[in-house]
């Protein structure tokens, strides 16, 4: 039996958990898995936490010109690395560089998509992808407008976060294991906005969560998982506010908390799947994948501070009620798509 060589590129911290079970599956099947990862956020720490060997190539740019320079440099370095490795297929989730490198080297690629608002990234990548996997809730026309070929798209029910819980085991003692000293009965977990993302115009030294924290800290314990040091600095010095430094078992943390208030996306959707009440205060235009949870009654969205606070106080005294939603087996879709892409080489 011929051993398949699969290249997986990791460019954002949530993608580590997204691909964790996919990587393990391919390795258990005897395939040769090559992992590259850029230096950004908690990517390297999470890779080490899960015990994955990887090659660090490139880093994230902050300003527009830095993004262009770093992405160009990373594509160059990846091109040299991958031309020597000669993988049979490439797999990524919103990697800017993988589709460009695989296309240039004639390697088939599988691309996982869940953000139709990342216009610049989508225009740079989608026209070059051999296979695209995306939620059916995203309007196909939005993807076609940025160059995605509808003939190579596989759509599924649900969102990408459903794959994160493939082998999740809840640790109900997560608060104790983290040594948290919580004075109040209720606990809220918060996640600031993705200030450094190209699709969001935001200042990394400020956060939409600040006025929310200032009020709710008097009613509940506040746990905050910042994306980078500047965000952590915003919330230092507040009474009853604890900064959680990744990597930690965020799934157990979300499930144990009484409420999640997030100005991002991934953690909100994960919490919704875990049955924890969620308020999204993402400052940009809502993604279709967020609308999926809102329409299914698993998430509330608002950018009004008073409304968020009042909703939070109501949810804190309400009983948690997990709601089932029908989703497809995204794990199986990805695995089968990788093998199909390699067979069609």
Automatic annotation (TrEMBL):
InterPro entries: DUF354
Gene source species: Methanothermobacter wolfeii (Methanobacterium wolfei)
Protein name: DUF354 domain-containing protein
Entries under Gene3D superfamilies matching the protein: Glycogen Phosphorylase B
